[in-house]
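check these tokens.
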Amino acid sequence: MSRKHSVQAHLGTTASEYDRVIRTFIPGYEQMLSTIGWWLSQIVPQYGRVTELGGGTGALAEMVLRKLPEARIEVWDIDPKMLAVAQDRLQNFGDRVTLREKSFTEKLDECHAVISTLSLHHILRVDAKRAVYTNILEALAQDSIFLDNDCTMDMT
């Protein structure tokens, strides 16, 4: 995945408008986030650690932090404009949230859950997908979970 990816280039919208626009593209967006929250509440321990890949504006991270009031989350995204929106949204959660300008291909630290929403479809090559998914598997602690709410992209 290129470090030059941005929501502006991909969807033609600004980072500040993404939360509104994505809800017009994805029916049931709120239910999708809620479903991830439910699964995390069933599996992640009270003081668990969650890593979100492609965290964008922090909408999913905010839901996780509210649903799991003692958990910590690390949000990765390569678009600094999206991370700036996330910083504004998540500032009240203090040190429970860490924002990182990182690519999916970088090594993950051990965690209780890896989550992603509408991000991993940007990995186009099979070998790159294999590397990212292997990295995710290796980062997961025992009795943990990987949740990816995404679309499937046809080669054409």
User: Anything to note?
Assistant: The two ends are 18 Å apart (CA to CA).
